[in-house]
TrEMBL record:
This is GTPase Rab11/YPT3, small G protein superfamily. Belongs to the small GTPase superfamily. Rab family. It is found in: Cell membrane. It comes from Handroanthus impetiginosus. The chain holds residues 1 to 183 of 219 of the full protein. It comes from the Eukaryota. GO terms for molecular function: GTP binding; GTPase activity. Coiled coil: none annotated. It is a lipid-anchor.
């Protein structure tokens, strides 16, 4: 962790990436967290986007630069530039679509290939508001997360359940482990 005897005004910046199959809700998790917005329709634009969010931890400003694939996974593997410098990843599936859960090992492999840190990874089962059409149980999510050493949380970008909590857990975790000082 970056430290200094005179650390007043110290700032930290972490890059966070959100990965997972198309339409699991990655963009909406980000827009819910960063702007408290939700969109029923997927965005038409393709390209990587990020939002910066600040969080105060121990009286210090911790900034999270959160990247969304913005659809590139629909056409090909996410490029290595997307992962570059990332400390944290939210690996997302849709609890109402089993195929997106089955893809998680592939996303974790890709993450291992492109990123050398294991700090702060979280498995996120999104769309937990869709309980009536649930296709992946909470226990399955939890047990995969335990096997892989990931945090686990079910979220809903639609009704806001656990969205702030999920991001803040990983941001705090990374702050407590690895940090990069921003001058
Ligand atoms: P991405 O491709 O992974 O970025 O997914 P999007 O954020 O574009 O969302 C894909 C679709 O799922 C959109 O129609 C969203 O409105 C919907 N969606 C996203 N999050 C949720 C959620 O938590 N609950 C429900 N019911 N729908 C969601």
């Amino acid at each position: 962790m970056a430290s200094s005897s005179d650390d007043e005004g110290e700032e930290y910046l972490f890059k966070i990436v959100i990965i997972g199959d198309s339409a699991v809700g990655k963009s909406n998790l980000l827009s819910r967290y960063a702007r408290n917005e939700f969109n029923m329709h997927s965005k038409a634009t393709i390209g990587v986007e990020f939002q910066t969010q600040s969080l105060e931890i121990d009286g210090k400003e911790v900034k999270a630069q959160i990247w969304d694939t913005a659809g590139q996974e629909r056409f090909r593997a996410v490029t290595s530039a997307y992962y570059r410098g990332a400390f944290v990843a939210l690996v997302v599936y849709d609890i109402s679509r089993r195929s997106t859960f089955d893809s998680i090992p592939r996303w974790l492999d890709e993450l291992k290939t492109h990123s050398d840190t294991t700090v702060g990874r979280m498995l996120v089962g999104n769309k937990c508001d869709l309980e009536n059409i649930r296709d992946v149980s909470v226990e399955e999510g939890k047990s995969l997360a335990e096997e892989e050493g990931l945090f686990f949380m079910e979220t809903s970008a639609l009704d806001s359940t656990n969205v702030k909590k999920a991001f803040e857990i990983v941001i705090r975790e990374i702050y407590n482990n690895v940090s990069r000082k921003v001058l």
